[in-house]
Specification:
The structure holds two protein chains of two kinds. By secondary structure, chain A is mainly alpha-helical. Chain A has helices at 2-28, 34-44, 51-61, 67-81, 94-129, 134-148, 151-166, 176-179, 185-222, 225-232, 237-243, 245-249, 251-266, 269-274, 280-289, 293-321, 323-326, and strands spanning 86-87, 92-93. The longest helix of chain A is centred in the middle third of the chain and has 38 residues, at 185-222. Chain B is α+β, with helices and mostly antiparallel strands.
Chain lengths: 328, 641
Amino acid sequence: MAGFMIRRLLYMIPMMFVISIVTFIIIQLPPGDFLTALTARLASQNETIDPGVLAGLRERYGLDQPLIVQYWKWISGILLRGDFGQSFDWNKPVSELIWSRLNLTMVVSLVTLIFVWAVAFPIGIYSAVRQYSVGDYIATFFGFLGLAIPSFLLALVLMYFSAHYFGLSIGGLFSPEYMNAAWSWGKLWDLMKHMWIPVIVLGTGATAALIRIMRANLLDELNKPYVDMARARGLSETRLLLKYPVRVALNPFVSTLGWVLPHLVSGAVVVSIVLSLPTTGPLLLSALFAQDMYLAGSIILLMSILTLIGTLISDLLLAWLDPRIRNG
Amino acid sequence: MKLVRDLRRQAVRAAVLALVVCAGWAGAAVAFQESPQLKALVDAGKLPPVDKRLPAKPLVLTPLQSVGSYGGTWRTATFGGGDSEIERSIGYTRLVRWNPEWTQVIPDIAESFEVNADATQYTFTLREGTRWSDGEPFSADDLIFWDEHVLRNKEITPSPPAWLTAGGEPVKVEKLGDYKVVFKFKAPNGLFLMNMATIRGADILAASPAHYLKKFHKDFNPEGIAALVKQAGAADWAQLFNNKISFPGRWRDVGRPVLDAWMLTAPYVGTSQVVAERNPYYAKVDTAGNQLPYLDKVTIDVMEDTQAIILKAINGEIDMQNRFIETTDARPVIVQNQEKGGYRLFIARPAWSNALLITLNQTHKNKVLRKVFSDKNFRIGLSHAINREELNQLIYAGQSKPYQAAPREGSALYDEQMATQYLKYDVNLANRYLDKAGLTTRDAEGYRLGPDGRRVTFAIDVLTGSPIQSDALELIQRYWRTVGIDMQPRPTERSLIFARLQTNENDGIGWVGGGGYDFLGLLDPKWYFPHEYESSFATAWGLYYQNPNDPNAEEPSEEAKKQMDLYRKVQQSATLEQQLAAMKELLAITRDQFYIIGTNLEPDRVGIVKKNMRNVPDVIPSTSFYMIPGPVKPETFYYEN
């Protein structure tokens, strides 16, 4: 087990290096640079930017230097000083921008994850144990529906309903009166009132998928001889179900954990944009559009690293959960 | 709206008029009134009395409809991290500004201004007693600080903005008295005041509060600066300083002294709410002597999605705004929900000349296309082949009208022939012109062949973000197919279009056309002559105008060169009259060259105003150059109870 871990950690070092280079290349791929994007954005709104100002910015941002120099500036800052550089679009340190949004991103993602598990787990088990019952059909129907509806559309519809019927303000995670207030019970309650929409929207697709996976896996297990044997030994049905088949069927739940971490950062970009959530997803998208390379690069780099770490964690968990993987 | 009634009146005369108004006012010693909010602070001893806070002769604004009452919040919304909505709604304060009708430049913070005959010297008289929002006096020294320590500081301003330079030298500000300064240019700079009235002008006053900014300036705080830079997480001191004075960084600096009607209390960061509250030292009053603004507070919700802004509007959460909700596709929803949202509509009149221009790059790197595009008959033929009335019905719901790329009706530069030439939809006529252009042979599919014996085919880039323009272009593709021309609409991401333009790689683009209103044409002439690479009808010539040594630049035609000289003449003229005269000459060449194919005028758009909000005009010019809604004096908006 220890050897397995050390090996995995060592693999991660060259992997990170490659990722950082690829990230930088990807960000440089679109034609032009931040200032081209800025000029274009202004022109599409019938605005212009002063050529003198433009020249000054190009110099200040070092966009006139060769790519390799720009890459080195970025990566050496991260490695030597933990400095992710400055965002052009915001004129602020990248790390500050990301951290300021990470808290709420984490809250939303974790609540969503708990929601997904809390719903999918029991329904999945029920669907499998009572296969082809009315309940199973209903669960299946809603499951497919949840998979099929584009989440941004669901977000728009829910937003409309909550505004129309509950009088909630549009978008964001807080009402205007709490938006800039310090934390209090009132603000927490206000957050809860707004939170359910993103949680449902972000959760439906995953819930539906997990219900189906749980059901399928459990059905596979339930027909295996050891289940009959346990039954013959007189184990209670609940205990029998939870002790072995469910444990085995849990694999997919654990493997999704690996995706949760990067999700915390990129958290369903489209939905966050539609709902105007103050999370990192919209930040990444606008950074890519604006060709704000240090910001976009750092977010992508962070996401990749989190994916690596997440995969590692879920592998370890799987190994702990399933002896077949551990000793296989 | 009577657009240009007295456009030819000289700016100087406007200044004199303003002086007369103020002089008349000064004689009548009226006690000033203030909002109850501030009165409470004065009574509590936390604020000096209103007479001490205002200049002896404050600027008197005449409300559009009626003198208002104090109180209330103006709620708006903006999109993303760098939109200028905030600048236009609560940051429209400068030495001079646009008048509401957008026909002249008028004094704002300056009491008056004078221009010398060759547009090299601009003298501004400030109002004695004007104060920053923190109560410190505003004087000539502030402007000197900006000039000497910001504009001329190489670290803060590596290259000064073009509008503040003439003859290769940045402007020099000299002090003539505590409340009098002169801006001196090395060469004539006739568009200086107009530029100041646009978004650019805000940079001067933002970098002027010397008493506040000196702390962040290396020359004034050599010991303490390093700690401040570290604390702010800035790369160096110049960046720290720039964040304090430039857009959008300055809107994240709560407590920054301003001369605006409202001052920032919650910053512009991420998805949140920006809040600005009444500036107790705001130096303007209404005709009854009430200190402005009427409204206590302005909130701007920062959204990530424009659809959410539209939802907000129909939900009644926006009080006065046109940006983001004036799009053609949102219009039905906005119009239908007036009752529910509790708002009425105002007309936001697009200032530009056209909803969709089509340019064909006459400096194309491909010799064949260059030859074809450069033939005026070819362009005339294509123009006659467009069924503009059908476009109007299908795309603009009949709200528009056929129009070429020309100044709008009612403007001083309006030229009927230029606006209406070659508009007639006539396939036979179109075919005759295309034959005249030498494209007489056709291939098996009926497409015309170029001089090289191959089919004439080209792509027109259009913004992915403008589906309406894409739709129009697809119809035009059909019209042109009927006359044997193969045009491919190519929806392209913004930056890519621009990267192509910079290197002269474009066939042509479909874009919204600037220059409909006079000032827009003067300040942003790229659709009238090859002014820059964005003049995509002759990209290489535009590059030449900016920099003859650019690797992609080419020597322009005689006519284009003449236009370039005329535009230089515009820049060197001191009065609006002379500027418009030179511009008219320039436009006559544009008309005869017929560089660009126009389609339809952009239909009027609608913005929303709360039903009981007063002093909001029914028609407002809509473009960022005008800084909508700034010039219509939001400080005089109020709610009628």
